[in-house]
Design a protein that fits this description.
6 helices; 6-stranded antiparallel beta sheet; alpha+beta; globular; about 25% helix; 12-stranded mixed beta sheet
Length: about 350
């Protein structure tokens, strides 16, 4: 009798222990599932929306890229997540190339800073890289407005001159050099920018708009005028300066884009060298090109970032790379931008 009770008690204890172990195992599996789901949701590059198994929480780097005809073709543009193109002096544009998902071996030619490019870089919490500066930009950099590396102080070390071009069209840097400089100055290179809003696959399939496979943006001087062509097989846009395709200097790899965002805003010449003040705060008219279609949108400055909106709502980007053209409100977007459907 006592033996039967003893055996029953032992069996009950074993059953309870088994249930406890099973519960712990299920809890562990649930925890792992949550962790996997969390990891999966975070494995997206914030400026392109592209999924990745690589590190995606690193800090973005914004580099001033020369667009003088003598600086072409450039290096590194095909690996930039987003490029902002604005006028510097005269009718010559300059690029702010933002890198977060890719890290090119060579970037350049690197050119001097302007205050409005610094504002754009600050909005994405970038490390800002330039070679030289305007007086207004120097004031901002000297006051520590943004973490920066300036080639004026690293010429021949973190920035290298090539012999095939003349200064100021021959200064180059690399991600190894940028990371070395950031470490020397104690800059934190972790912390990805806040993500842009991206369209789902279904939303991309349902995109509406006027068909436009050829687009031209007029900045004034022919060498700075921009053309885009939508490549149906690639489902991406190729870019051209004065009819010459934008490609990588050494490899000839073309710059391929998924979003073309064109905005107009007030430009004001502020000195006898033709330097400008460009309003990136007030908002205004714009065009957004995606998948061979063009739509009229507005742009707003949201947390110091240029965002497309329609009827007051943010418009999502197609997953991939983006180019932003900022043009003067005089003569304005309607006269400076033309588009057509290739027959």
């Amino acid at each position: 009798m006592y033996m039967k009770k003893f055996i029953f008690i032992i069996i009950a204890i074993l059953l309870l222990a088994g249930c406890s172990t099973k519960d712990k195992t299920e809890d562990k599996q649930d925890d792992e599932t949550v962790m996997k789901d969390t990891d999966a949701s975070s494995e997206v590059f914030p400026l392109t929306g592209m999924s990745t198994k690589e590190e995606n929480a690193r800090r973005a780097v914004a580099v001033m890229i020369n667009n003088h005809p003598q600086a072409r073709p450039q290096s590194g543009l095909s690996e930039a997540d987003i490029v902002y193109e604005l006028l510097a002096e005269g009718d010559i544009t300059r690029f702010l190339a933002v890198f977060q998902s890719e890290r090119p071996d060579q970037i350049g030619p690197v050119r001097s800073a302007r205050d409005y490019y610094i504002e754009l870089a600050k909005g994405l919490d970038c490390l800002y890289v330039c070679h030289g500066n305007s007086p207004e930009a120097k004031t901002m950099l000297d006051k520590g407005y943004i973490d920066n590396l300036n080639g004026l102080y690293y010429d021949g070390t973190l920035f290298q001159r090539t012999s095939d071009r003349k200064a100021p069209h021959n200064s180059y840097t690399s991600f190894d050099s940028i990371e070395k400089g950031a470490e020397e100055k104690g800059y934190d290179m972790t912390g990805a920018p806040e993500p842009f809003t991206f369209l789902t696959e279904e939303e991309v399939k349902g995109l509406q708009g006027e068909a436009a496979s050829k687009i031209e943006v007029i900045y004034g001087e022919a060498s700075s005028n921009v053309q885009y062509k939508y490549e149906k097989t690639e489902e991406k846009y190729t870019r051209y300066s004065d009819g010459e395709q934008t490609v990588e200097n050494h490899s000839g790899k073309p710059v391929l884009l998924d979003n073309i965002f064109i905005i107009e805003t007030v430009h004001q010449v502020v000195d006898n060298k033709g330097r400008r003040k460009i309003d990136l705060k007030s908002g205004g008219k714009g065009y957004l090109l995606q998948k061979g279609k063009i739509n009229e949108v507005d742009w707003v400055n949201k947390d110091d970032r240029i965002i497309p909106v329609k009827d007051g709502k943010e418009v999502g980007l197609v997953t991939g790379k983006t180019w932003v053209n900022v043009i003067p409100d005089q003569p304005g977007i309607n006269k400076s931008v033309s588009f057509s459907q290739e027959q």
